[in-house]
Amino acid sequence: MLHGPLAGKILKFALPFAFSSILQQLFNSVDLAVVGRFDSSTALASVGANTFLINLMINLFVGISVGANVVLANHIGQRDARGIRDAVSTTMVLSLIAGGVLLVFGLVFAQHLLVLMGTPAKVLGGASLYLRVIFLGTPFFMIFNFGAAVLRSRGDTKRPLYILMAAGVINTLLNLFTVIVLRLSVAGVAIATDVANLFSAFMVVWLLHREKGAFRLSLRHLYIRRRELSRILRIGLPAGVQTAVFSFSNVFVQSAINGYGPAAIAGASVAQMIGTYSYFLLASFCGAAVTFIGQNYGAGQMVRCRRVFWLCLVFGFTVCLSANLLFWFGRGYLLSLFTTDASVVAYATVQMRYVVLFQSIAVSYEIPASAMRGFGHSLEPALMTIFGTCILRLSWIFLVCPRLPGFDVLMLCYPVSWVLTGLMVATAYAVTSRKAYGHSLFFF
Question: Cβ contacts of residue 295 below 8 Å, gap of 6+?
């Protein structure tokens, strides 16, 4: 990451990263597809009603893993073996704490949160059961994601991908077995996801335990270093709060969707899931920006930091837009994989028209925010994004939607918030880079 041409290296880093995220999302996609095709639309709605809520509760801690990535990347750029060793151990202890907190919180408050969101009584029981079983597996989910962040900080995105490929096969086969053979419905697909996450966690710990040098994880000597913890939280906590608040705003959107009934819940969940694949393509270049800039900043190579920013911006926009168009024009086939219910398809199509088709706009704030985190500036983009994706969307829901009712008007909150957030974060990035480094990092 510190020497030679950048474009090819960024692609080699980002594409396996993207496929890894896509495979993790496939766990939920397969859950939706299996219950939608082999059970009922009600079961599909029960699983889909949890999407935003699950993201809300796990994104805070997944965001903290971004801080671990940056800290490790900085240590690599500085060739600080002791710092790497301390950061690896601290990161993995954090994953255990995060998983435990989520497990308890999810089990205790699952049904209460679904009720607060206005989940229809027809799907509440199944949604609550699915959520509780899913949260039994959150410790494994956290261990894998924090462990994968350690591997990715040194440019290793392939082995996490291989792990998730195997986990995806396990999840799919177990989904079919538990739903078709055992007739466990939503509980069956949740159990399959937990088992797949258990496998992923075991494999990433096994890999780290077999690493050589500073990256080796010693299971007998897990510890937290206060200095590393402070740096990880300083960068990762704002990133986590940002994604959590982003999901928090989506919970209100989900509550508004719930008012349109089970068909809208099912359709919106399918469309949201399809859009997530486009987002993960963009997010992989955000991860590349954080890691490459983190290492080069640690080595004092500012020119390469500027090049990384622009390459990730162009690549992220191109792949996200390409996926958006592909999904839109292939929407008929894609939606048929999940449901044959005409009303569900109609709601999904509306959401894809206003959300999936314009998702590439998000590059305007995602890449600048990631670049700032690579330099250690995490609070500024977090505050901008919180305002743009939470305050603006809530204002839209409570001020615009009552005056202009309709599912299509509700969905417009996404592209509107993306445009305004992009303007704010891009401006903050330009100002911060000029103030901190004497010139704008927007330009070569």
Answer: 1, 2, 73, 74, 76, 77
